[in-house]
Write a structure and sequence with these properties.
The chain is an alpha+beta fold. Helices cover about 50% and strands about 10% of the residues. The protein contains 30 helices and 21 strands. The chain has a five-stranded antiparallel β-sheet, with no helix packed on it. The longest helix has about 35 residues, at about 200-230. The radius of gyration is 31 Å and the shape is globular.
């Protein structure tokens, strides 16, 4: 389908982008045309939207990027905890429209960009426009990317959408050696870091590294060998008369002929490698520098946090892998089930599907068969074989400890011990399969143009035969196939069982799988034989998109925003009665009725003693002794030190007066404890954090006796006397009016962190760690202004490196453009 105008220009790209825009509009129609609705996402409502509102409110208030969020786990560094795509380009929408609408529109935009970047990827490998349409159409609604709508995992979706852009830029850079394409790689990786799903970025970078190694190991030596053979052919063989240096008996202009020194030969041999190696190295370095504002604070935070999950070691790294039984999800999504709520496999939690689509798989098989036959030129056959091998390697990696691939990567690659869910490697695999599908259509077009094309029929049968047999079994006897899967793939007594409703869905899977293969293979054959025109790609893509759509729409849930986000009576009351630094606890206890969502208090600007995040700050983790919900029950001293003044419980508590009631929940006030800021009457010094925590557990009266940790070279602070009141309370800035009747240590109910600095009347003072987790500052006698400011050196360094990288990239691109113009 090469749609050309009268001037000969190809308009396929614009037809495709227009069609992609129509598909996205229709797919998201229930969201786009109803401004009161949001796109439901479980993780988004539980965790993501609250921190994004906090960030947006701080920006709109004119305070800039917040460095500290006081509303989660008693307070945490904000940027480093990966709160969401706060530096990502589409985040600008957060400032221009209601937040829930902006988040939904970013999903819509990235579905469209998935198609556009898929098209670009195929074109970067020099495939024809209609083949690029196949790649873009296959990737735009591919199951593993789009199904993350259900979880609201926008960062993961955005990161995967950027994979074809990064691969396409890298391929063009490796082939051309031009700096602008390596700059594109750097910007794509940096954008993935800003998503900020760093694990997707890491796995995507592994795919980029594979493409780079393929180019270095296979492309360059063969290209050099072909060039050498061309030089060694006689002028008669090349079909032209000798001239210049060839008439001089093969001498070069220096007159030395072929008697080059070994050093010259080594330099000549290394020359083809210099630009690719330098370009790829600079692209990686540039990506690190560009992503500094997000990357550096996260790396700095890793040394002072504890994972909420508490996992470590290889067992943790291999968790949430792709079970071998669920390889069938690539082509039969309802066998082990991709329906939310009816999953019966071995993963503890599953909210997505790996479905690749029947048409992309069928065309990818044609592409692989062409690569192992004579269905493409040699250069394309090498790429096809690379893509096939990389796809297999990616699937083996995704299966975690079921194959040695992931274990080898765990022990040989950096940072692998900090990552889990190897199944996310399916993201790059979907890109490889989409590109292979484009190569399958390209083989049909080449045969149509008269080239001698021979597809490997054994490869076609070997890859497609088992899938077609399973598809036929699903279509003819779906219940029998389900029974076979339960009996053969899972141990006896497996507690989960397939829902009876899956049988009809599985039959539809089988029929559509057979139909997709039939449409794809018949279209390839008829186009190759010139029975129909290349416009048939439009019909093939429409069938493929429709098949993916019917699975993806299960994961798109649109709901009214007000019931999810509007404040109730309890939140309204808390806004009136909770003072600065007073925290609230809304426990979700096992067996108890549902309370608020973990970060729902944060969404309404209420400081919570608990919450939901990936990490716990170490002082907080020590204080609550593990799980926040359990620790705040087990250790009442933790509630007192965190200044928890209110608790929200489902139902009524007998004998306790409720402050407010809403939606079956009640708000209760705790009796006043130590308070927000106090001068303890006595000070005990502990040699380390463990000893300090033990003293905290024994001590029940912190205003009477507080504990500080020993600091080499510092005398322990003395006990003082006086009072303190909050004057100004902002995320990164706290001001207190302190009246010290006697100089001494003032303890403030805020978590200790090295980023916090204290100033008394403008003079910086040391911040002690008090009561195992809090801040303490020695205040002299008299009335003083005590200020806490949070400053992140890692963020400042990241901003400077980002601007420096932008400047260098801009200068390099400008220089490259000037040279190109002079050359033309």
């Amino acid at each position: 389908m090469n749609a050309r105008g009268r001037d000969g220009r190809d308009f396929t790209l614009w037809w495709f982008l227009g069609g992609a825009a129509v598909v996205c509009t229709l797919f998201y129609r229930d969201f786009i045309f109803h401004p009161e609705r949001l796109i439901f996402g479980s993780d988004m409502l539980f965790e993501g939207i609250s921190l994004r509102r906090f960030y947006t409110d701080e920006i709109l208030a004119g305070r800039g990027v917040p460095m500290w969020v006081p509303h989660v786990y008693g307070g945490m560094p904000f940027v480093g905890l990966l709160p969401g795509p706060i530096f990502y380009p589409t985040t600008l929408l957060y400032l221009l429209m209601p937040l829930h609408r902006a988040i939904g529109w970013t999903f819509v935009m990235h579905t469209f960009l998935g198609g556009a970047f898929g098209y670009f990827l195929a074109r970067s490998f020099r495939l024809r426009p209609s083949s690029a349409v196949v790649c873009g159409g296959a990737f735009m609604l591919t199951g593993y990317v789009t199904s993350h709508l259900w979880g609201g995992q926008d960062g993961r979706m955005f990161g995967m959408v950027l994979i074809p852009l990064a691969l396409g830029c890298l391929n063009r850079g490796l082939e051309s050696g031009k700096a602008r394409w390596f700059c594109g790689v750097a910007f794509a990786i940096a954008a993935q870091t800003f998503t900020p799903h760093t694990q997707v970025m890491y796995f995507s970078s592994l795919a980029l590294a594979l493409l780079f190694l393929f180019h270095i190991v296979f492309r360059i030596p063969r290209d050099r060998g072909r060039a050498t053979r061309d030089r060694e052919r006689t002028p008669r063989d090349r079909g032209r008369t000798p001239r210049g240096d060839e008439q001089a008996g093969g001498r070069d202009r220096s007159g030395r002929g072929d008697r080059a020194s070994p050093g010259d030969r080594r330099r000549a041999a290394l020359k083809p490698y210099l630009k690719p190696v330098a370009g790829f190295g600079l692209a990686v370095a540039g990506a690190v520098a560009l992503s500094g504002p997000q990357l550096f604070p996260t790396l700095a935070l890793l040394g002072s946090v504890t994972r909420v999950s508490g996992g470590a070691g290889y067992e943790f790294a291999a968790s949430f892998a792709l079970p071998p039984q669920e390889l069938t999800a690539f082509f039969l999504p309802d066998l082990v089930s991709s329906l939310p709520g009816s999953y019966w496999g071995s993963n503890p939690l599953k909210l997505h599907t790996e479905y690749l689509g029947s048409v992309p798989i069928a065309l990818a098989i044609v592409g692989v068969a062409a690569g192992f036959g004579r269905g493409a030129p040699l250069s394309q056959r090498r790429v096809i074989r690379f893509l096939a091998a990389a796809s297999v390697l990616g699937v083996l990696f995704a299966m975690g400890d079921k194959t040695p691939v992931h274990r080898i990567a765990y022990y040989t690659l950096p940072l692998m011990d900090s990552l889990r869910a190897p199944a996310m490697m399916i993201g790059p695999v979907t890109v490889f399969v989409s590109l292979l599908a484009a190569y399958g259509w390209e083989a049909a077009l080449r045969s149509r143009s008269g080239e001698d094309i021979r597809i490997s029929w054994p490869a076609l049968g070997l890859l497609g035969g088992p899938l077609l047999l399973l598809g036929a079994a699903a279509a003819v006897n779906p219940q029998g196939l389900l029974n076979f899967a339960v009996a053969s793939w899972y141990p006896e007594g497996w507690p989960r069982r397939p829902d009876p409703a899956l049988a009809s869905a599985l039959r539809a899977n089988g029929l559509l799988l057979l139909a997709g293969f039939a449409v794809s293979w018949i279209a390839c054959w008829t186009v190759a034989r010139r029975r129909i025109g290349s416009w048939a790609v439009a019909a093939v893509v429409v069938v493929g998109v429709a098949d993916l759509w019917r699975v993806d729409e299960r994961y798109l849930v649109v709901a009214d925003a007000s019931p999810q986000l509007a404040p109730d009576g309890i939140m309204t009351t808390l806004a009136e009665v909770a003072g600065p630094g007073e925290r609230v606890w809304a426990p979700n206890l096992a067996g108890a009725p549902r309370n608020y969502r973990p970060n729902e208090l944060t969404y309404h600007g209420v400081s919570s003693a608990a919450g939901l995040q990936k990490f716990l700050l170490d002082p907080y983790a020590r204080l609550i002794g593990g799980s926040p919900e359990e620790g705040l029950i087990r250790y009442p001293e933790a509630r007192e030190l965190l200044n928890v003044r209110y608790v929200i419980m489902p139902g009524r508590q007998e004998g306790v007066e409720s402050v407010a009631e809403a939606s079956g929940r009640n708000l209760y006030a705790f009796p006043p404890g130590a308070g927000y800021a106090y001068f303890p009457a006595g000070i005990t010094e502990a040699p380390d954090s463990s000893a300090a925590l033990a003293e905290v557990r024994r001590n029940g009266d912190f205003p009477a006796m507080s504990i500080v940790e020993e600091r080499p070279g510092f005398a322990p602070p003395e006990a003082g006397r006086g009072s303190a009141a909050v004057v100004r309370y902002e995320p990164d800035f706290i001001e207190l009016d302190v009246v010290a009747e006697k100089a001494g240590l003032l303890v403030v109910s805020e978590l200790h962190d090295p980023g916090w600095r204290a100033f008394v009347d403008g003079d910086e003072r040391d911040v002690w760690r008090a009561n195992a987790a809090l801040r303490g500052v020695v205040v002299p006698e008299g009335r003083h202004r005590l200020v806490f400011e949070y400053r992140s050196r890692s963020f400042a360094l990241g901003v400077w490196t980002c601007f420096a990288a932008l400047g260098l990239a801009g200068a390099g691109l400008a220089r490259s453009c000037l040279r190109s113009r002079r050359g033309s």
